[in-house]
Amino acid sequence: MNSHLLAGKVRHRRTQPFTYQLEHDVFYFALDLAELDAVAAGSRLVGRNRRSVVGFRDADHLPTPATDLDADVRAQLRAEGHDPAGWQITLITNLRVLGYVFNPASFYLCRDAWGTLQVVIVEVHNTFGERHLYTLRPAPAGANGATDAVADPFNASMPKAFFVSPFISIDGSYAVHVRDDAGRVRIAIVLRQDGKVRLSTSLVLERRPLADRAILRLLLRHPLMTQRTMGLIHWHALRLWLRGARFYRHGEATRAHAAAGAHAEGGHAGITGR
Fold it and tell me: What's the alpha-carbon Rg for the chain, to the nearest Å?
């Protein structure tokens, strides 16, 4: 079975308007989407679309809640111009613990039939119940003399287009770095605004076999993991607010971002005559 567990640390570092850092122990499931039923059938703790100690629900994923996540993600890839036939898609995510889950970000690592990481889909959730997908394709490694090879490790960038934190505006761009080695996974995301690094986040996770004993051990070490994630989000938000970090209201920030985008589009149209 390709599916397994991942355990390690998450780190965040803000640099503006002041330095603020956090580090927490975490664990994730790395699920081969073709094995979802097999994972549930082989575990007394994990269930798919039913009540269980640790639960996977297809509808917890994608902006339009999925009904069959494997099929729906492949449809998303085809809509983005990819042919996922023969691809292995691994989802790195948290599952429901005693019925509750909140995933700030989940990652779909999409490898072709030769094992090359071709696409990374980043699925971002915010505390307003909204979801957004960033579909990332690395640039060819032409800088290293190759013309068709895909860069390894995986590096890509994307404009920020989704409201996540009330302490960060919807501006700037992300640089995403994924290194998927035999023993561990490292995912790093850097947000730049006005040419400066605003936020750096990273996950460094060691692989562990997917077995009930290992799951139970992680649940005892990190009780109510997903509930704790939501609690920590609000705890750190309170600390940022008390330190005087600028607060962006959801509706205002989203409207301002949309207006700025429309203005830029209009200016571009005027220049090109479109």
Answer: 19
Residue pair 201/188 in contact (Cβ under 8 Å)? The answer is yes
pLDDT in tens, 77-105: 999 999 999 999 999 999 999 999 999 99
Judged by average pLDDT, the poorest of 54-63, 183-192, 227-236, 241-250 is 241-250
In degrees and rounded to multiples of 5, residue 245 shows phi and psi of -65, 140
C-beta separation of 153 from 177 below 8 A: yes
| Residue whose tokens read 């409201």 | 163
Q: How far apart are CA 39 and CA 31, in angstroms?
A: 8
Tally of domains within the chain: 1
Cβ atoms of 222 and 27 within 8 Å: the answer is yes
For 8, which DSSP code? E
Helix, strand, or coil here: 135?
A: strand
Provide the residue range defining the domain that includes 75. 4-272
Higher pLDDT, 258 or 132: 132
pLDDT in tens, 182-195: 899 999 999 999 98
Token pair of 236, please? 């750190």
